[in-house]
Specification:
This protein is of the alpha+beta class. It has 24 helices and eleven strands. Among the domains are: about 110 residues, Alpha-Beta Plaits (2-Layer Sandwich), CATH 3.30.70.240; about 140 residues, Alpha-Beta Plaits (2-Layer Sandwich); about 300 residues, no CATH class. The strands form three sheets. Strands 1, 2, 9, 10 and 11 form a five-stranded antiparallel β-sheet that branches. A four-stranded antiparallel β-sheet has the order 4-7-3-8, sandwiched between helices. The relative contact order is 0.11. One of its GO terms (cellular component) is plasma membrane.
């Protein structure tokens, strides 16, 4: 946890690497992932850099890998996943040549097989369609030789004058083919129009689905035969067939010729089937072999491309015998970087070892916070608001506790908390198996599994304090109240309510949480309202005070000691003297006023309203108390409140003018000489740079002062959402129990068992769906807002940029998500 208090110290380093050792050295750094390289050639075009040809080679290999992967997906062949220990390292230059040759050979082989397979499949489809034409046109040509288009009458085939008559009348020609069924009717109308009805068209649907040549999808097709006379009409029909993508096939009219042709087609189909099966077996063997190595090839190509991409960031020295690079490195990882450079030089057998120099700079370093799988989720919540400035106090350390606690204040139910704990425990126990699931919504829940676990555990505690289990209370320690009324009084129906006085009916304090007797009280909502409302204000004020105090840590670290007096002191005074005093009055009222007091002015009926007291304090007003009561809770309270308001008002011009006047006085003592220029602004933390005009300083400080004064009031009221959501959650839970589950208890005998079973199912689904998921999400978002706006705005600037090291693991994970 100590690493999370603030971001790590960073160092800007220069790396000196020999060209022959550069590839191996960068590969070692990529495996360790602790250097964020800077581009020293940002003014150079990408196509003019030293290693652009190597990057292009990697792009070509990457394209081949994608092509092989697409062929695997096309054949539904699964590529085995690599484990972390099976992941190959970046290939050396000799392995690159072998890998390139292997990818080229596999791609060419798959290309040839795909082309041959497409040609064979097209031939097979055409043969099948030809067979369908020959079989389905059998009925179209019965005694066709003696049918005449002009007379539609049958002639005697034994008549010797028949051929002469047929020649005189004109021989009937035809065109046969296959067309999609959806296009046939439009095709039929078009033939009728171009021939003015002089075409006789017949069709017969092919049974089953056929593969479409254009899309490869299964469609319905039909066989057609168009009978006509004349060569000119034949050419028109063929043009229409071409326009409608209808395939025309040769079909003899004689039955014996068709039978011989069908036999020939069947033989050719059998030969094609055998060739296709052999081609498919060979393709399957090639793809299965490629699938075994493709995962390794993919990792090797990506690593190699990343290395050459980083090498393009390097700048050669004037002699050309050394490559110079720069990058940010965490100070703790400097020995690791030096070790990686030495190992890279040793692998490449370089005569001169690579080395590293730490250089000084005025640039703001990147922000890097080490996290583990537990703290990573909380750190992501903070980074979503804004990346912390370099070495700024990190709110994630405290968010690990405050976030689930404030969530639990709104989600205080032990039953619902058990559901959260069970879900989070499942994600944690099965995290190795579930880590491979990349579905977006599930990834969000899986990444926050430890947040959900803590939210559930804290909700168990607050549910115990609220004594709330699915809207029901538990009598663990025995109630501290007893009934002082006799039987006749209790059974008297004319008495609507019975009042239990604390000094009479309460004989002990319930050890932990709320007394279960409040579950039966008619004023339960009123009591819980006041209790949770005050509780939310108390938590909110302490949370904001803690946030203001954290700004002192930043001021001390950045050596802005004057800001402690000019900003922190007036801010914390303003907050404590107004709202801290209001919290004090709540505790004082709880302790002082009770039913057992002998002084009437300290009885519960005389307890003043905290809100009215606070309003009168701000407006310097007064309110007449009831008879026997006092306006104030203790002697001298009026004077103390007046002093507090005056000091709080003084804090406003203190915050408004203190820092600008200090900056102006400081500049007057440090005027630059005429031949010197003012120093560059330190930047990164607050305003008041040496080059900033004083008018800008006054304006910015005025904005900050107005924002703080107004936000102190609005942020305090904003914490009332803790009370509102807690009350809403408890009431929704009670409504679901009374209106759904309890309806199953009104039946008797075996019918009641069935009713309870059904109502329990409905109640459990609604409980998980509404109270756990929707209400849980609502409480989560409200808690997030309280941290981002009310807490972090008091000290967190968030003006930094993230440390993005060159890391093979991160590169592969990003590519996998894409």
């Amino acid at each position: 946890m100590g690493d999370m208090f603030r971001s790590e110290k960073m160092a800007l380093c220069q790396l000196y690497v020999q060209p022959e050792a550069a590839y191996a050295s960068i590969a070692e750094l990529g495996e360790r992932g602790c250097v964020q390289f800077r581009d020293l050639n940002d003014q150079v075009n990408s196509f003019q850099r030293k290693y652009v040809n190597e990057v292009r080679r990697c792009d070509e290999m990457e394209r081949r890998v994608r092509y092989i992967e697409s062929q695997l997906r096309k054949d539904d062949i699964k590529m085995p996943q690599l484990n972390a220990d099976q992941e190959p390292s970046a290939p050396n230059p000799r392995e690159i040549i072998d890998l390139e040759a292997q990818l080229e050979k596999t791609e060419n082989e798959l290309h040839d097989m795909s082309d041959n397979s497409a040609s064979l499949n097209a031939n097979f489809r055409h043969m099948q369609e030809l067979k369908s034409v020959l079989e389905n046109t059998e009925g179209f040509f019965s005694n066709q030789e003696v049918i005449n288009l002009d007379s539609n009458r049958q002639m005697d085939p034994e008549d010797p004058k028949a051929p002469q008559a047929a020649a005189q009348r004109g021989q009937l020609a035809f065109v046969a083919g296959v067309i999609k069924l959806e296009r046939f009717f439009s095709f039929e109308r078009m033939l009728w129009r171009i021939s003015r009805g002089n075409i006789f068209l017949r069709r017969n649907d092919i049974s089953g689905l056929c593969e479409d040549d254009e899309t490869g999808r299964k469609v319905l097709k039909t066989v057609f035969v168009a009978f006509f006379q004349g060569e000119q009409l034949k050419q028109r029909i063929k043009k229409v067939c071409t326009g409608y993508h209808a395939d025309v096939y040769p079909c003899p009219s004689a039955a014996n010729e068709r039978a011989d042709m069908i036999k020939d087609v069947n033989m050719r189909l059998e030969d094609l089937k055998m060739v296709l099966n052999q081609s498919a077996d060979h393709r399957s063997r090639v793809l299965s072999t490629a699938a075994k190595h493709l995962a390794r090839w993919t990792v090797m190509v990506k690593k190699m491309k990343a290395i050459y991409h980083i090498l393009n960031y390097f700048n050669p020295d004037v002699t050309g015998k050394c490559l110079i690079g720069e990058g940010w490195v965490p100070v703790r990882d400097l020995p690791t970087v030096q070790q990686a450079l030495s190992h890279g030089s040793k692998i490449s057998e370089s005569s001169i070892p690579a080395f590293m120099n730490v250089i000084s700079t005025n640039e703001q370093p990147p922000t890097f916070t080490r996290t583990n799988k537990f703290t990573n989720g909380f750190q992501n919540l903070i980074d979503s608001y804004g990346m912390a400035s370099y070495r700024e106090v990190n709110p994630a350390l405290y968010t690990c506790i405050t976030f689930p606690f404030l969530f639990a204040v709104m989600f205080g139910d032990m039953g619902h908390a058990v559901v959260l704990v069970a879900f989070a425990a499942f994600l944690i126990i099965k995290e190795r198996q579930l880590a491979s699931i990349k579905e977006e919504i599930f990834t969000i829940f899986f990444g926050g599994r430890y947040i959900i676990l803590l939210m559930g555990i804290f909700s168990l505690y607050t549910g115990l304090v609220y004594n709330d289990l699915f809207s029901k209370s538990m009598n663990i320690f025995g109630s501290g109240w007893h009934n002082q009324y006799n039987t006749s009084t209790v059974t008297d129906h004319s008495i609507a309510y019975l009042t239990l006085r604390p000094n009479i009916s309460n004989f002990k304090t319930y050890p932990l949480g709320l007394d279960p007797v409040w579950q039966l009280a008619d004023n339960k909502i009123i009591f819980l309202n006041t209790f949770k409302m005050k509780l939310s204000i108390i938590f909110g004020v302490f949370h904001m005070i803690f946030g203001v105090c954290m700004s002192v840590v930043n001021f001390v670290h950045y050596k802005k000691y004057a800001s402690i007096i000019l900003e922190f002191v007036p801010q914390v005074l303003f907050l404590l003297l107004l709202f801290g005093y209001m919290v004090f009055m709540m505790f004082f009222k709880w302790v002082t006023y009770n039913d057992s007091s002998l002084d009437q002015s300290l009885s519960p009926g005389c307890a003043p309203s905290i809100l009215i007291l606070f309003i009168n304090m701000m407006l310097m007003g007064h309110q007449e108390p009831l008879d026997g009561c006092k306006e104030y809770m203790f002697e001298g309270q009026d004077t103390i409140q007046t002093i507090f308001v005056i000091v709080a008002v003084i804090c406003i011009p203190w915050m408004l003018l203190g820092k600008p006047l200090y900056i102006k006085a400081k500049r007057g003592k440090q005027l630059p000489a005429p031949n010197q220029t003012a120093a560059a602004p330190s930047g990164g933390h607050g305003h008041g740079g040496d080059n900033e005009p004083m008018s800008e300083v006054y304006i910015q400080q005025a904005i900050h002062t107005i924002e703080y004064v107004l936000s102190t009031i609005s942020h305090t009221a904003s914490y009332l959402r803790l009370w509102a959501l807690s009350l809403a959650h408890a009431q929704l839970s009670e409504v679901l129990w009374d209106m759904v589950f309890s309806n199953g208890f009104i039946f008797s005998s075996y019918v009641g068992c069935i009713a309870v079973f059904l109502t329990f199912g409905a109640w459990s689904v609604l409980t998980v769906g509404i109270l756990v998921l929707i209400e849980g999400l609502s409480a989560f978002l409200h808690t997030l807002r309280l941290h981002w706006v009310e807490f972090m705005s008091k000290f967190y600037e968030g003006a930094g940029y993230a440390f993005a090291p060159f890391c093979f693991k991160q590169i592969l994970e990003d590519d996998g998500e894409n």
